[in-house]
Structures are given as C-alpha cells and as structure tokens.
Amino acid sequence: MTSRMSRTTTAATRTGATNTGKSGQTDIKPSDVYELRLKTSHLQLRTRQLKTQLNRLQDRILAHTNAINKTFEQESDQPAVTSNHANSVPQLKRSLDSATNTLENLLEQIDNARNDDKTFLVKELQEEVKLAYCEHQRLALELQDAKLEANQSTQRRQEMEFRISSQHINELKSSARELQGQNASLRDKAIAYKAKQKKLQVDHQIQEHIQKKMPPQKALEEADKKAQGTNEKLSEAAQNLNEEKSKHRQKIEELRELIAEQKQKILDFLEGRTNEEENEGENEGENRSDDGETKEQ
C-alpha cells in the first residue's frame, strides 16, 4: 500500500514538473513563482517527513532484528515460545520487505526531487526576479527625471502665463503712459525754452537798436521778420513733434497688437501642449491596461 502511494506521488510530481516546465517556457508570472516556491517548500517538508518515517522504520527493523537474534540465542523448551517465534518471523520478513520497498521509493523520490526541473526553474525565476528589480529601479529613475522635467515645464509655463497676464500688460501700458507723459513734458519744456530764448534775443536786439539809434520802423520790421522766422521755426518744430507723436502712437499700437498676437500664440502653444500631455497620459494608461491584459492572458 505504501509503495503504491509513493509511486502515485512520484508520478504526480513528474507530471507537475512537466506541466510547470512547459508553462514556464511560455509565460512566467509572479504568482507562478510564488506557487513554485510553495510547492518546493512542500516537497522539502515532504522529504523531511519521509526521511523521518524511514529512520523510524529502520529503528523498528533494527529492534526486530535484535529481538530475532536474541530469540535464536536463547534456548527454551516451551512450545509457546516456539509458536510465537514461528509466527513473528514471517511478519518481520513482511515488515522488512515493506520497509525496503518504502526505502527504495523514498530514495527514488529524493533523486527525482534533485533532478526535477522545478529546481532549475526556480533558479531561473530568481534570476529573472533580479532582472525585473533592476528594470524597476531604472524605470523609477526615469520617472523621477520625468517628474523633474514636468516641474520645470510647469514653472516655465507659469512664467509665460505671468508675462501674458493682464497684470503684466497693464504694467507695460502704465510704463508706456509714463513715457508719453515724460515726452509731453519735455516737449512743453523745449517749446517754453525756445520761446524764452527768442524773447531774450528780441530784447537783446531792441537794446542794440536803441544803442545804435536805429529808426523804430526799421527795428520793428526787423523784429517782425525775426518773429515771423521764429514762428515758422516753432511751427515746423511743433509739426515735427506732432509727427513724432503720431509715429510714437502708431508704434505703441503695433506693440500692443504684437503683444496680443504673442499672447494668443503662447496660449495656443500651452493648450496644444496640455492636450498632447493628456493624450500621452491616456495612451500610457491604455498601454498599461493592454500590458496588464496580456500578462493576465
């Protein structure tokens, strides 16, 4: 009975090893590794149990052998002893044969366990686990670099958003208005300075005419000519200033249009990049789900 059970266990072990070897060549999962480890531990435990049983059987065989030897050594005329001896010898022989058969089966199971493909498969899986760990570490580093780059991109985007924000544009407009006010103040000061300078020139000429005793009519004519020339120069200067003012306003409008255009381009770029990141995230999620389904299959 023990021999049949041992042979059945050996056949099941070989069948499991063959199936496991075939499945290990096609696809290996962490659950398979865990299951193989459990089976290996179970086999080791079973081997220890069988060794213990073998030692017990050997002790029993030794005890019976000693009893037989003592029986043969003793000399007794009692028929009961002779009857007991005649009955115990066949029983001991059967026990010896059974123990020998069990020992052979156990030795065969030990050899099969040593030469089983599961042992080598476990070693290969351990190496694959090490490689998977190294790959996991590499992917973790890449993920860390990607997060750092994403943070830098977010910071740059915030800076660009601040540049195109209403606050920044209002600051630029305020600076432009201050420059316009400064230009107008400088223009008024220049006109006032030129008018004062002309007035001083007229006063100086009047003094010269008085000192030279020129006729008043002639002095008035010269003063009118000079005043007319001065007015023409002032008109020309005012016209030039107005032209510069209109050009300045035109440049300001062009600058505003350029700022609005750049703002729209930056917004379009940021929206496009956000959409690309979302699409990439969706694609990565789909790829991960596909990988998970493939592994499950």
Description:
- The longest helix has 81 residues, at 216-296.
- With 297 residues, this protein is an all-alpha fold.
- The protein contains 6 helices and no strands.
- The radius of gyration is 55 Å and the shape is rod-shaped.
- It has 2 domains: 2-148, no CATH class; 176-296.
- Helix 1 (2-26) runs parallel beside helix 3 (79-114) and helix 4 (117-163) packs antiparallel against helix 6 (216-296).
Main traits of this protein?
6 helices, mainly alpha, coiled coil, single chain
Mean pLDDT level: 72
Number of domains: 2
**Helix percentage:** over 70%
Largest sheet: none
Cα Rg: 55 Å
Task: Please tell me what the overall shape is.
Answer: rod-shaped
Calculate the terminal CA-CA distance, rounded to whole Å. 42 Å
Strand portion: under 5%
Name the helix and strand elements from N-terminus to C-terminus, one letter apiece: HHHHHH
Quick description:
Helices cover 94% and strands 0% of the residues. With 297 residues, it is mainly alpha-helical. It has two domains: 2-148, no CATH class; 176-296.
SSE topology sketch:
Elements: H1 2-26, H2 30-73, H3 79-114, H4 117-163, H5 166-212, H6 216-296
Helix pairs in contact: 1-3, 2-3, 2-4, 4-6, 5-6
Biased composition (Low complexity): 1-21
Coiled coil: 89-196
Biased composition (Polar residues): 228-241
